[in-house]
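Per your request, structure below.
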């Protein structure tokens, strides 16, 4: 029996700790110049992350992580993933890696920013630097 989510999590924790650390450092760099603990500009967060990932070479490493994680699940990708949608998407919460494998779509989320919603209607959500990297893996 195959357990793709478990296998993916194990591979990331065993072989890609450096990538997790680099994602964390990049998020710190994005949040560092803010004059408060949060921002309401989702584009500044996502664009800042993408630019920092590109500058550090991390953006080009993420498709390799995806390929390796898929291989660890015992599946293969029909093509080599690239550092662009649908394989790699940099969101205002962090990078998301996606691959379609035999049992469904494997989604790896590396959340580094939290969304804080205001109780007051009409107020935009804020983005706050999370505590490290929250790894979320699902099979959809």
């Amino acid at each position: 029996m195959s357990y793709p989510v478990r296998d993916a999590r194990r591979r990331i924790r065993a072989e890609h700790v450096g990538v997790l650390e680099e994602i964390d450092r990049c998020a710190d760099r994005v949040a560092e110049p803010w004059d408060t603990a949060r921002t309401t500009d989702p584009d500044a967060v996502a664009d800042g992350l993408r630019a920092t990932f590109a500058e550090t070479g991390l953006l080009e490493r993420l498709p390799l992580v995806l390929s390796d994680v898929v291989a660890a699940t015992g599946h293969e990708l029909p093509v080599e993933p690239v550092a662009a949608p649908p394989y790699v998407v940099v969101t205002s919460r962090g990078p998301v890696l996606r691959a379609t494998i035999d049992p469904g779509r494997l989604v790896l989320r590396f959340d580094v920013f939290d969304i804080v919603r205001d109780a007051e209607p009409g107020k935009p959500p804020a983005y706050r630097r999370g505590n490290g990297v929250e790894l979320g893996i699902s099979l959809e």
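The chain has one domain: 4-139.

Regards,
D.
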